[in-house]
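Data deposition worksheet. Section B asks for the primary sequence of the deposited chain exactly as it was used as input, without tags or linkers unless they were present during the calculation. Section C holds the resulting structure in token form. Section D is free text for depositor observations; keep each observation to a single sentence. Incomplete worksheets are returned to the depositor.
Section A, Depositor: J.P.
Section B:
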Amino acid sequence: ANIINVLLSQTCWLSMDWMRVHVDTQAHPITPRLRKTALLVGSGIVSLLALFFVLQANQRSTLLTAVPDRRTDLRPANDMASVDRDESTLFEARIVTQWDGTPLEEKDHVTIRVQPTEEGLQMHIEAPFHNDPKPDHPPGPTDELWNYEVVEMFFLGEDEHYLEVELSPHGNYIVLELHHTRNVVQPSLEIKCESIIAESGDKWFGTALIPTDMLPPGLSQVNAYSIFGTETDNTRTYCALFPATAKHDGPDFHRLQYFQDWQLRMLSSN
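Section C:
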């Protein structure tokens, strides 16, 4: 309010100065009515400027905000390792439910963040480490990684084009390009990624760089998942950021109807 008052005062004085310079004050003296007109003109200009700045601020806020499900916990993960939080973060959410909406214990929550880089999108993961059996495969692209302990993120674009990115705590990953449900068109894509298990042994951290040209056109929706436990001891657990809201016989991460919108700043022009 103080800023607007100062702008109003300065605008009115500038209006008066303009009239003194450009108006013949001998033939057209500055009357109270003319002063009132100058005040109204100045007020209008200041109001327009104030409206412009408010709209700009709202637009910036909207572009930096992801649209979460009501069950999604977007509280910051204060112990995310060596990852700076700043306004460049496009998306941050925490997986707090199983695939059907059943709440998870807090120790099983997974935090995922996405940030823009010059090369594409950088995905950061903080997840509990369950020490499940690891893949019998060296770190790198690994088929059928969903059979192990893993965190996944799906990026959905136009005409059901979507990208599936999976990371394990042991450095294994898989990236698939799909068109329509489960129809893989590009298997085993390669990306830059890294996974580190904390010295405490109770959590792990992962990063993956997804090139811009690998993302689906018209990217607008996402979902994220985590899987842990084993079938042999009946502890296999399937978790979802945006869980199914209807009754189903079992988990299916390719139910695209449950993906939800997010808003991108870097890729909004695409």
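Section D:
The mean pLDDT is 79.
Helices lie at 2-22, 32-63.
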